[in-house]
Structures are given as structure tokens and as C-alpha cells.
Amino acid sequence: MQNEHEDQNKKHRQLETFRTDDKNKSLTTNQGLKVSEDEHSLKAGERGPTLMEDFHFREKMTHFDHERIPERVVHARGYAAHGEFELYESMSEYTKADFLQTPGKKTPVFTRFSTVAGSKGSAETVRDVRGFAVKFYTDEGNYDLVGNNMPVFFIQDAIKFPDLVHAVKPEPHNEMPQAASAHDTFWDFVANNQESAHMIMWHMSDRAIPRSFRMMEGFGVHTFRFVNAEGKSHFVKFHWKPKLGVHSLVWDEAQKINGKDPDFHRRDLWEAIEDGDYVEWELGVQLIEESQEFDFDFDILDPTKIWPEEDIPVKIIGKMTLNRNVDNVFAETEQVAFHPGHVVPGIDFSNDPLLQGRLFSYTDTQLIRLGGPNFHELPINRPVCPFHNNQRDGYSRQTINTGQVAYHKNSMADNTPSTSTEEEGGYVHHHEKVEGRKVAARSDSFKDHFSQAKLFWNSMSVVEKKHIVDAFSFEVGKVKNKDVRQQVVDMFGNVDNGLASAVAHAVGVHAPNGSEESTVTKESPALSMENKAKLPDTRKVAVLVGDKFDDEEVETTVKTCLDAGMNVDILSEKYGTLTGQNGLEVEVDETFLTMHAVLYDSIVVAGGEAENPQKFKMDTIDFLNEAYKHFKPIGILSKGQPFADASIVEMTDGVLSYSDEDFTNQFVKAVAEHRHWNR
Ligand code: HDD
User: Fold this and answer.
1) Residue 2 pLDDT > 70, yes or no?
2) Is the CB of 338 under 6 A from ligand 1?
3) Active site residues
4) Distance (Å, whole) CA 402 – CA 38
5) Is 289 in a helix, a strand, or coil?
6) For 374-430, what is each residue's pLDDT tens digit?
7) Radius of gyration for the chain, computed over Cα atoms and rounded to the nearest angstrom
8) Which atom of ligand 1 is nearest to the CA of 132?
9) Residue 159 CA: which ligand 1 atom is closest?
10) 161 Cβ below 6 A of ligand 1
């Protein structure tokens, strides 16, 4: 797919040199030899044994036998797209990073979203954190912002990461459950590692079941540093704010989608980009002066803490647009190698012990996953600026480094490749003064695990709180070990007694005992999804239509939806053309068999006649019931009324009838609202 952004996109131009199109070409071996036979191996007689000398058979089979590489140890299930980042205003006051200097400057990006726990083939709408990793191909080298859709993390020190992951992955003795945290070992880990409290509140919230990658926030999580040309440093946290707002599924729906369409999130992203609905996030930064490091009631190095946006505002500095799908998922999405240590001058690290450990882990994992030290040469990983050094050889080296000299310092090549001074763009680590004794310990300032968990709880709407209680009840309800269930309830009694007691009631253990409920009363409205943008754009609407439908009503409704930026499917009992009572013809896009109510944001029932009226009626009612249970907007056209009457749908919040005053505008508003909780 060619689009207007590509000409200016340096990464696109670079990738173009690696693309190959096999269509209309002769089949050859990897040595370029034309092949005359690709269906029958070479045999001694038609019914005889295959011969060793059949080099084409051997090459084809060997390559196939080696096609798989190890999946990522976490974040295995992911999907990515290309795009660009455009800067709104110069950040030179804070950082000398070249891509953050000139308003309007565009930098190519590649962004991969992922679930964490599930394996590569697992379903996508599971309850989990989502990875949100962005590679900026800047003129100074690659900068990776490897974040998540939640702003905090489970643990405070990277040394505990293998333990966390062992606990959440399928249990080792029976490899169950897949892509789920609802099992004994995960919750045993939580109860015995109470630093996880704040993250678990996020994990039990609706943020863990996003409606779309396009409707998630992203966070760099750690505190990083911006350093300007004068060497002055600020602490910084990064935020991605989706233009479409932050929206989620409901749990029953999420579970059903996993069966109906395990590719739901990747399909959503792929289709949006193919349809030209390019996806946008604004990049925001929170900044703290170095002198303010100790001014807060939390430690800014602690990755289990947010900086409340009401106290430290998010400054919006630019926009990322994803506008191009990959050509080949393995070559690009699977082989891309992110690393929080890929930085550019002007961006540096803090001493967050989780970040410090990550700086080791990411290169290390690529060595096994991508088979050696030359993964930076893979097309998707290559910087768009030149790179030269004395690193040589290793498995699958692509570059042919010419010349005699591969060491520093030298005189025979005039001591090149040469290092650069700071002024010439050389990366110089921030001159932070550090002193201390060697201790394997954690600062006391990291020991308050419950205040921000309570802040999060206080900031939730009534509905969000209910969903959190339900999520805990489901997850802890799946824990077989009653002692672990009790430990979890006792732990969250330290956050909120009402929450813990409700969960205790649902999972059959005692109300929290010995817990000390946090006394924090503060709220942060920015944490509630209720306060995010609400738009009808790209929402998916199914119009359920039979023959002899009301032409005008269907035409008006479809046009209204399309004009408001929604996507519309005409859905019926079978593919083909339907004819309205006055002769309007519409093409059927999907059928009751190929789709399901959970795959749409909204249902409009137009009614009409069917070949199999009983089945048509049952299917229509099923769609309506599901949409109603999942709080989705529903439109009822005149001929759809009998179907609605036979369903559980009541004329309440978010249910609109064509005869209502101002139906079309009200319907668009109802779709923008996303869910109607007052049912
Ligand atoms: Fe990590 C992958 C995000 C902590 C070790 N991580 C990975 C990916 C994302 C994150 C988005 C997938 C990148 C992609 O799409 O290829 N990880 C995070 C965040 C963390 C975090 C936001 C906490 C703030 N991670 C973390 C720790 C460690 C790792 C503490 C180990 C010390 N992460 C890895 C890894 C992975 C990875 C094992 C697996 C595949 C990969 O790196 O390339 O090295």
C-alpha cells in the first residue's frame, strides 16, 4: 500500500531497498538456480526412495525446519505498524534531543502493541497489561520508548522480574492457564510481594481489557531524564494520549471475543490503517526540576508510583500517527528489537532500579531470540543514520566492512571511526553525582505500597469501582488455594475495606483481618476513563436488515453513521442483495454466521423479511440481547420494533427508537458515549 506520507519517510525509503516481490518471477533455489520441478522429489523410480542428491528438496525442507525462532519471553503476542512523530513545540529548554528541537519536524516511528503473559498464538482480549513500544528512527540514531498502557509496574527492582513472570505465566506442572492471571501462582506472588498493590488495582480495572490498541494510553512508566545543551537536567515521565479517548470492553464481552475473533485487536488496528483511519496519539511529558526531587510524598524513582497529573501537568509536545501496515509480520513485527537503553543525546536514565535492570535484559534477550549480535542489521532495526564502529563478525553478518583496521585507537586509518565530542553529537552520560555503600537493599522511601493504590481507587467512578470488585472476584475466585484467597483479601484491606470485604464475600473467605485501610482521601480525576474523550469516530455499527426493509430509515441511518465517521456493516441471514419496500438495494457485508454482536460497538435493528423468519428472529434477538447486556447503544427502526419487543431490550439509557425526536443526532451521541451503564 502506497500513501502520501511515504515519500518523506526515511525509514520507508530504507525498507524499500530490502523489499522483494516474488510475483511473476521464476522459482529458483536460494542459489538462484531455476527450478524445474517443485511437486515431486527426486526418486529412484516413481515408487522408489527419495534421493539425497535432490538439493532442491533438501534446501526447501531445511529452510522450513528452521523457520521458527523463540517467541519473546514476555510480550510474545503483538502487532505493529509504521508511522511518524511530529513535534508541536521545541523542547530545547529541557532536552537537546534533535527530534525534539524543531516544531513540525517529522520522525519515522514503528510501534508494537502486545499482551504480556500469553504466548504468540494466544487470544488478544484477555485481562492483561498491554505493551506500547515505540521506536523513533531519529537522525541521531534509534530512540526506543518501551512502555505499557499502565503507568506503574508490579515490582520495584528488576531482580524480581523473573519471579513475577514465572508466577503469571501458565503454571509449570500443567501449563495452564494460557494468557491469564487468574490462577494460584500469580495471586500467591501478589500477596507475598505487596509492592504490586498499586499495579494490581490498574490490572483489575477496565484498562486491562482495552476496546482497541487505538483507544489506550501509553506510559514510559519510569522516570527518565531530559538533558539540555547546557547540561541541565529535568526528570521526565512520558505519556501517550489517544485522540479517540480511552475505552474498554466489558469482561463477559472480552471473553466471548476471544472465541469469536482471537485476532480482534490486530484486526482492528490493521483495518483502521487500511481504511485510511490513521491512528493518532499525542505525546505528553511531565517535568520535574532536579531541585524538586525530594518534594513529593513518594519517591520519584519508584516505578510503582505515578506523578498525579493534577499536581504535575502533562505538557503535550507532539503527535504520533500510525499510517502504514507492515509488509511482512515476521520480518518487521517479529524481528523488531526494542530496548529502553536505545537513547539519543538529551535523553538519559534515572536510578529507578527497575529501569536499571531493564538496561541489561533487552539486548540479552535479543541475542537468543534473534540468534546473535547482528540483529541491529535487520532492516526493521537499522537506524536511518549511518553507523560505524569496530564491532565485527558474528552469526549472519550482513555488512561488508572493508579495510584492514578494526580497532581503536589506530594510526593506520587516522584513528577512525572516530569518537565525537558532546558538541559534535557524541552521547555523554549525565554527570550525576553518586555516592553510597554497596548494599543489596531498598530505600525506605519505596516502602509505602498502599497510598497510591487508594488514590487510584478513590479516583474511579461508581461503575469503574464495580468492575474492579468484579474483576477481583473473578480472578481470586479462580484461585484454588483458600489461604491465598484470604491473603489477597487481607492485602487489599490495606487499600479499601469496602473493596476487600466485597471480594471476601464473593470468594468465600473472611473479611480482611489485621489490615490497616489507607487514610488517603485524595482523588486524581485524570485516572478515570470516564473523563477521557468520547467520539463516534471509527465505531463499528451492525445494521440488522431483512428484505423489504424501510428504505428511507435504513438509508438515513447508514448515512448518519458514515457521516459521523463510523464504520457500518449491513448484516443479514446470508450474503447477497436485499431490496427495500420501495426498491432500494443494499449489499450484505456480513451475516449472523460470520459475525457476532460482541464484535460491534453498536447494533441497529432495521427488521424486514427473511427466508427463514424464525432463525432470523432468534439471531436478531440474540444480537440485541448481547448488545444490551454489554451496555452498548442500540437503534431501533420501525420494522425492528417487534424484534426489540421480543428481546430483553428496554427503552432505557442508550436505546433509541427511530420515532424519537432528533433520532439521528441522538444516536451519534449515544455511540460516542460508548457504553450506557444506567441499565
Ligand atoms: Fe519489558 C519486552 C515493557 C519491565 C524484560 N517489555 C517488553 C516489551 C514491552 C515491555 C512493551 C515488548 C517490546 C516489543 O514489542 O518487542 N517491560 C516493559 C515495561 C516495564 C518492563 C513498561 C516496566 C516498567 N521488562 C521489564 C523488566 C525486565 C523486562 C523489569 C527485566 C529485567 N521485557 C523484558 C524482556 C523483553 C521485554 C525479557 C521480552 C522480549 C524483548 O524484551 O524484546 O527483555
Assistant:
1) no
2) yes
3) 75, 148
4) 39
5) strand
6) 999 999 999 999 999 999 999 999 999 999 999 999 999 999 999 999 999 999 999
7) 28
8) 11
9) 32
10) yes
